[in-house]
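ok new one. same drill as before - C-alpha cells go in, u give me an amino acid for every spot. 72 of them this time. try not to just spam alanines like last time pls lmao
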C-alpha cells in the first residue's frame, strides 16, 4: 500500500543539491525524504527552515574560504 508523506519539493541546481545532500548525510539523514532527480528533492516540511539556515551558513563559509585563497 502506498505511503503518503508531507514535505516540500525543493528544486535547485545540481551543485546546491549536492551541498544539501552532504548536509543531510552529516546530520543523520533528517532533512531529505526522497532524492527525486538531479535537481529535485522532497524535504521534511518541519526541517526546511533549519536546512535553509545550514545551507546559508555553508555557502557563507565556502565564499569566505574562496575569497581568502584568492587574496593569497
Amino acid at each position: 500500500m502506498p505511503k503518503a508523506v508531507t514535505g516540500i519539493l525543493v528544486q535547485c541546481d545540481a551543485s546546491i543539491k549536492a551541498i544539501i545532500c552532504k548536509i543531510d548525510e552529516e546530520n543523520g539523514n533528517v532533512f531529505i525524504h526522497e532524492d527525486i532527480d538531479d535537481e529535485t528533492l522532497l524535504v521534511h516540511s518541519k526541517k526546511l527552515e533549519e536546512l535553509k539556515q545550514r545551507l546559508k551558513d555553508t555557502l557563507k563559509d565556502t565564499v569566505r574560504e574562496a575569497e581568502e585563497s584568492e587574496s593569497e
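The mean pLDDT is 90. and btw The first strand starts at residue 8 and ends at 11.
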